[in-house]
Specification:
Blueprint: H1 2-10, E1 15-20, H2 27-36, E2 44-49, H3 55-66, E3 72-75, E4 79-81, H4 86-95, E5 96-103, E6 115-116, H5 121-128, H6 131-134, H7 139-144, E7 155-157, E8 159-160, E9 164-167, H8 169-175, H9 188-198, E10 202-213, H10 224-242, H11 245-270, H12 274-291, H13 301-304
Helix pairs in contact: 5-11, 10-11, 10-12, 11-12
């Protein structure tokens, strides 16, 4: 409930919508208890409790539809607002979208995550092959993760993290919300921001508005092999949607080449064969996409996660 506690302290006048994606913990109960205590000094909270997991994009779209305010702030449950939202609201009202700065618990900006440029075939290939991890200062990665930028400088950016993103309602409606085929998670925020910029909107980065980000609140509950499979599927789906055929196939090839060392590392980490099973599924998917004469239809993504 610390996310709501921080809202109560920094933005008590907001109307908050909490979307629970069929969680198996006590989230729904705790939200109801939280709203029942001193409701006069807390934000108004609306709870949407799903009976099934609709994924990040589906839950975000539900939240936008259920919220009556404008603009609307998308806030992950592992994010704690630490400053006033006023500068962010002003920037979003002017430009259409805005984002603040995500920090680690020690107060340092989460460089490489809070803002990024849009992925390129080269940046995704290096990410898949682990080169960005082994050599984070390489020119492609520095550009991709905005490591060449002062994170305390306000201005337009390409892709802030969806964990702390504000949008005007008319912008969200114009874009049709998040693409729910990125299911259950990853790259839906990248796709949303890229569609926004292509449509002529500006995404303003407002670093004086800060929020603490713990990271991985939901995905930590997944087995790492399953989590990696979701990441691969969403990454390849993003590449299919936004890259030309040959660069897209290059990303598919990088996915195939990267799977074996990742599976071996997974076996060492988990001490079971689940990473091998997941790796075989990823290879089958990547090879199928690599040799296909056409890029896959966007509506096939959910079946690829099974």
């Amino acid at each position: 409930m610390s996310c709501l506690d921080a809202l109560a302290e920094m933005a008590p006048d907001v109307v908050a919508t909490v979307v629970d994606n069929a969680s198996t913990d006590r989230t729904v109960e705790l939200v109801r208890q939280w709203t029942a205590v001193d409701p006069g000094v807390k934000p108004q909270v609306k709870l949407v409790a799903n009976s099934d997991n609709r994924g990040f994009a589906g839950a975000a779209n539900q939240g936008f539809r259920a919220t009556i305010g404008d603009p609307i702030l998308l806030l992950n449950p592992d994010v704690r607002l630490r400053t006033s939202l006023t500068p962010l609201i002003e920037a979003c009202s002017e430009h259409g979208l805005a984002a603040g700065q995500l920090t680690a618990p020690d107060g340092r900006a989460q460089a490489g995550f809070t803002i990024r440029r849009f992925p390129t075939p080269a940046s995704l290939a290096l990410e898949l092959l682990g080169i960005n991890h082994l050599w984070p200062g390489n020119p492609v990665n520095r550009r991709y993760r905005y490591l060449d930028r002062d994170l305390n400088r306000e201005g337009p950016v390409e892709q802030p993290a969806g964990a702390f993103l504000m949008a005007r309602r008319d912008v969200w409606e114009h874009l049709g919300g998040f693409d729910e085929d990125f299911h259950p998670v990853w790259f839906e925020d990248v796709d949303f921001c890229e569609r926004a910029v292509r449509a002529g909107y500006r995404i303003e980065y407002v670093p004086q508005v800060r929020a603490e980000h713990l990271g991985g609140h939901s995905v930590r509950k997944l087995p790492s092999a399953r989590m990696e499979q979701y990441w691969y599927v969403s990454l390849l789906s993003y590449a299919a949607k936004h890259f030309r055929p040959w660069p897209y196939r290059g990303v598919c090839l990088a996915a195939v080449l990267s799977t074996v060392p990742r599976a071996v590392a997974g076996i060492v980490r988990e001490r079971n064969l689940n990473p091998v099973v997941s790796g075989c599924k990823i290879i089958r998917l990547a090879v199928k996409r690599l040799v296909s004469r056409t890029q896959p239809a966007q509506r096939s993504r959910r079946t690829e996660n099974t």
